[in-house]
Amino acid sequence: MDSILNQTYFFKFIKFGLVGFSGLFIDFGITYIAKEKLNIPKYIANAIGFLLAATSNYVLNRIWTFQSNNPEIIVEFTEFFLISLIGLAINTLLLWILVSKFKVNFYLAKVFAIALVTMWNFLANAFITFNPERLILTYASILFFTNAFIPIKFQNVLFKSIDFLF
Question: For 125-142, what is each residue's pLDDT tens digit?
Fold first, then answer.
């Protein structure tokens, strides 16, 4: 069973990587045009390229990598996009460190940042966005959080307010 699961995730990661590679061309292309041709500051150009690539990656990953049938496309896209925004923060921070502190070439630093963010994006999307069992995981997480950090007298109010989600 574990080998089938590992094999499934391995092939999904390969597909995710191929989709990401297509996003690489969008990311670099848009970043280059924004930075070099439109004279947009490099970190803003990076954000524009990254976000447009993330949007195209969502569509391709939904259809091909994860074969999602989730009818709540807006929710799924929002989750994917939020994970991408976290990835953007990681990407930009790593770029800033490599370029500003270590004087690495901007585009070489971008390659390293993309590699790191690819791992984050795959894992987060596999276990959150495109995970059909995520409601169970989300509910379990809420239970753990509330039991650990929220006084019992407030837990009933909280669960009544989120019951409609499940």
Answer: 998 999 887 654 454 444
DSSP symbol at 164: G
Reported as type and span, the H/E element at residue 126 is none
* Integer Cα distance of 66 and 25 in angstroms: 21
Give 10-residue mean pLDDT values along the chain (166 residues): 73 94 93 97 91 91 94 89 87 93 94 89 92 61 49 52 44
Site of tokens 């045009």: 33
CA angle 41/43/46 to nearest 5° reads 105
The 8-class DSSP code of residue 103 comes to: -
41: helix, coil or strand?
Answer: coil
Q: Compute the Cα dihedral for 47, 53, 55, 58 and give only its sign.
A: negative
**Phi, psi angles (nearest 5°) of residue 130:** -105, 20
Distance set, CA 160 to CA 42, 141, 157, 165 (Å): 47, 16, 5, 10
pLDDT tens, position by position, 96-107: 999 999 999 999
